[in-house]
Amino acid sequence: MSIRASISAFAYRGARRRHAIELLLYSGALVLLLLLLSAWICTQGRLAPPPYQWNPSIQVAPIPWNELALADIFALWLLGLGLFVLAPASVAATVAAERRAGTLDQLRTTPLDPLALLCGLVVGAPARFYILCAGPLALHVFAGLTGTIPLETLGATLVTLGAGGAACILLALVVALAPRQETGGAFVALGVAALLGISAFVAITLGHDRSAVNWAFLHPAGALNASMLAHDGLWRHLSVGYYSLDKFDTPRYASALAMTPLFSTLFAVIGGILLARAACRKLGAPHLPLFSKTQAVALFALSAAAIILPFDEHDSSSRLAGTVPLVYGMFLMPVMGLIGLFTTPSFEAWALDLRRRQPSSGWTDDGKPHVATWTMLGVFVALLFVRLHEVGFPSQMREHHLASFVWMLTVAATLPIYMLFASTRYSTAGTRWAFGIAVCAHLLLQIISIGMMHDSYLGTSEWTVVEIGLLAGVLVPGWVLFRQQMLRKRTLAGVEKI
């Protein structure tokens, strides 16, 4: 079956012809409602007294009220909500329902190849949301063609909506396919919606800060906000305060806003390709881990580069050289652990690998996650060297800063021990969650201890916590390694008896 047939089949299940026409009419009615609401708000805005009228010395630029511009703002909000939150949640819910009903395994037995099945889930399953977005999208295009917003802004927002929406939907698909068995159901969709919604709010907030705007591209909502802020229009006047309008005259901030949509598109395209390959891999071979080892390293390298490389500070100091790498490590350690977990083989694959005379290398699907995780750690350190050498990393790091950084790298290097034990020792989702919570508590103690070590002024109680953290950092991974070795011996002994 072709990709077109797969998309049509999934789309017909969610929005049949008559239902699609009704949704299209609802979309048109929504546009009419936005125009009426914008007309009422603009009328009230023009009648309102100017701010700070009691103080003539304060000169405030009047808000350029425009009905079509305000309706376009509402339309962009709805497009972002539909493409970045609701459509991904719909895909996650569809996959969870297919797995729960057992039809996802049946689809794998059809002539559909993994790419066709992926296209059906990504394009066809959320078709009703695409139809509902047709009216707001047409309104946004009309606003650009009539000059309400610049044509370059229209082009940037359309590309961001397309690439960013596809990346968000692929992320939701990968999250829904990641568990080995059906778990969560609707909670997966709610979790995806919450994750994307919160990250969108954070990205929009970053776009308003001159020192943090370089990271606004991490979510397409931040790129949409930057595209609209780049020109002097109604969006800018409603988004920032009267005393903040002068920051747009700064060439550095204006340049960052202009480049954010480009960086966001590149990030979404590269990340979307990696996620699409992982989804096709899981759809075609559900017994394999979600990511191959090379895909995991590439995905982590993309995430680490997106967080580290935008750092823009040229003032060299020992405190900056010691603090920034530690902060980046705290952000990227959970990402490393999560990606590495989805490269870990199951107990069956691990046991079969033990029976071989020549065990698999660390880069195969049956291999341990240690080599891939340590490679991610090397990529992280290399990116720190590339980006932070101007601020004195690692030459200007003080002894306690260097000690805390090495301690953090050591803790990160022990992560594959927990990944392999959780995947091979526990067979149910509940036991894995319990073990994962225990590991998170241990890692939290390590982070607190590392943070105290980073401070050179430690009292008796702080040193006690650091000593407990050091002791736990040795005993906990050592105990897990011992249990893993015992499991290995029992597995081999069972094979020999057979």
Number of strands: 0
Mean pLDDT metric: 87
Major beta sheet summary: none
Quaternary state, please?
A: single chain
- Outline type: flat
Please give the share of residues in helix: over 70%
Order of helices and strands: HHHHHHHHHHHHHHHHHHHH
What is the number of helical segments per DSSP (H or I, 4+ residues)? 20
End-to-end Cα distance: 44 Å
Assign the structural class, choosing from mainly alpha, mainly beta, alpha/beta, alpha+beta, or little secondary structure.
Answer: mainly alpha
Which range does the strand content fall in? under 5%
Q: How large is the radius of gyration?
A: 26 Å
Unreliable runs: none
Question: Which terms would index this structure?
Answer:
0% strand; mainly alpha; single chain; 498 residues
Kindly describe this structure:
There is one protein chain. Helix 3 (67-101) runs antiparallel to helix 9 (186-207) and helix 17 (399-413) runs antiparallel to helix 19. The chain has helices at 3-14, 17-47, 67-101, 103-108, 114-124, 127-132, 134-145, 151-177, 186-207, 220-229, 234-239, 251-284, 293-308, 318-341, 347-355, 370-388, 399-413, 415-425, 429-454, 460-497. 74% of the residues lie in helices and 0% in strands. With 498 residues, the protein is mostly helical. The radius of gyration is 26 Å and the shape is flat.
Please give a quick description of this structure.
With about 500 residues, this protein is mainly alpha-helical.
Layout of helices and strands:
Elements: H1 3-14, H2 17-47, H3 67-101, H4 103-108, H5 114-124, H6 127-132, H7 134-145, H8 151-177, H9 186-207, H10 220-229, H11 234-239, H12 251-284, H13 293-308, H14 318-341, H15 347-355, H16 370-388, H17 399-413, H18 415-425, H19 429-454, H20 460-497
Helix pairs in contact: 1-5, 2-3, 2-7, 3-7, 3-8, 3-9, 5-12, 8-9, 8-10, 8-12, 9-10, 10-12, 12-13, 13-14, 13-16, 14-16, 14-17, 17-19, 18-20, 19-20
